[in-house]
Design goal:
single chain; 361 residues; alpha/beta; FAD/NAD(P)-binding domain; five-stranded parallel beta sheet; four-stranded parallel beta sheet; 10 helices; 28% helix; binds flavin-adenine dinucleotide; electron-transferring-flavoprotein dehydrogenase activity; FAD/NAD-bd_sf; FAD/NAD(P)-binding domain-containing protein; flavin adenine dinucleotide binding
Amino acid sequence: MAEPGVDKKKRVVVIGGGVAGSLLCKTLQKHRHFDFTLIDSKEYFEVTWARLRSMVEPSFAKRSVINHHEYLQGASIITSDANGIEDNEVSTTEGRLISYDYLVIATGHMGSKCVTKPEKLREYEADNEKIKSSESILIIGGGPTGVELAAEIAVDFPTKKVKLVHKGSRLLEFIDEKGSKKVLDWLTLKKVEVILGQSVDLTSSSDDGTYKTSEGETIMADCYFKCTSDPIGSSWLKETSLKDSLNDSGRLMVDANFRVKGFENIFAIGDITDVAELKQGYLAQKHALVVAKNLELLINGSDGGNMVKYTPGSPTAIVSLGRREALLQVWCVTSIGRVPGMLKSKDLFVGKTRKQLGLKP
Ligand SMILES: Cc1cc2nc3c(=O)[nH]c(=O)nc-3n(C[C@H](O)[C@H](O)[C@H](O)COP(=O)(O)OP(=O)(O)OC[C@H]3O[C@@H](n4cnc5c(N)ncnc54)[C@H](O)[C@@H]3O)c2cc1C
C-alpha cells in the first residue's frame, strides 16, 4: 500500500548536469519516491573551477571530470540537448520525448563541445601541449577564467611570456577595486603583462602569430586562449513554453522557492536564474538542495505553502593564483597570498565536490 500522500513515484526531469543539476540528481536519488531523468548535453559532470589546473596538469582532470554514471549509478541519463518543453514533456535533439510531473532547468552555461570524458581529457592534453610548445602566450579576458589561467601558467611555467588582454578597466570586475589591484600587482610580480581597456580582434589575427587590439596595438604570441565567459544556456528556451519567463538578460525569473514565473511544477536553479547574487557554483549547489527539499515536500502532499525559501548568498569570492596562493574577498575584506590559498588552491575543492557526489575524494 502506498504511504499517505504518496500515490506513485513522481517523474522529475532535470535538464543540465552541471554544478547544480548533478548535486540535485544525487540528492533525489537518495529519495525513493522520485523517478528522475537527467538530460545533459554531455556524458559527464565537470568541476568547472578545476579547468585551468587541468590545462597545466592534464592528469588533474581524471578526478574533476566525472561520468554521470559514476555518481548516479542505475539512474536514467540521456545524453542530448533538450530543445523543447510543451505539455509536460521535454523533447531532445536526438528525437526523444520525456514526460514529467516536475521539471528542473539547470542549464547554466552552454557546455563543452566534448561529449565524452576521453574527449575532454584529450582536449586538456592538447591545451597542455599548446602551452608547453609556446614561448609566448596570449590570454584574452581578465575575468576569473583568464586570471586563473594566467596565474597557473605563470606558476608552473615561469619562463613563458604571458600577456593578458582585458577589455574592462580592471581585472575581475565582480570583486571590489582593492581586490582587482592586488591581483594585478600579483600577476605583474609574476611577469604577466596585463593590458587593460582593450580587446583582441581575432578575425584580424594572422598565421604568423600577430594579433591586433581595439586600440591598434600589435601583439605577437605563439598561441592564444580565449577566456571570455561561455554563453548562458537559455537560447533554446526562447522557442518553448517558458519563453515569457525569461528576463531581458536571458535568465529565468524564479520566486524564492525557485519556481519559474508562471509555472507551478517547473523550477530553475543555478546560473540560469535571475536570483540577485554572484553567479557562483557553491550558491548553485545551495539552490539544488533547496529544490530537492521543495520537491520532497510537494511529493509528500504539500500545497506549496510550506516550501523552503532561498535567501540570496553573500558576496564571497576565492580566485586561485596557482598552486599555493589565492585572493579571498568576503564582503569588503580582501586577502591575498598563501593563507587564502590554503582554502582552495591545492585541490581546488575537487575532493570536496566528489564527496558531495558520494565518490572517493
Ligand atoms: C573557469 C571557471 C571557474 C569558476 N570558479 C568558481 C569557483 O571557484 N567557485 C565558485 O563557486 N564558482 C566558480 N565558477 C562558477 C561556477 O562554475 C558556476 O556558477 C556553476 O557552474 C553554475 O552551475 P550551473 O549548474 O548553474 O551551470 P553549469 O555548471 O554551467 O551547468 C550547465 C549544464 O547544462 C548543460 N546544458 C546546457 N544547455 C543544455 C541543453 N539545452 N540541454 C541539456 N543540457 C544542457 C551543460 O552541458 C552543463 O552540463 C567558475 C566558473 C568557471 C567557468
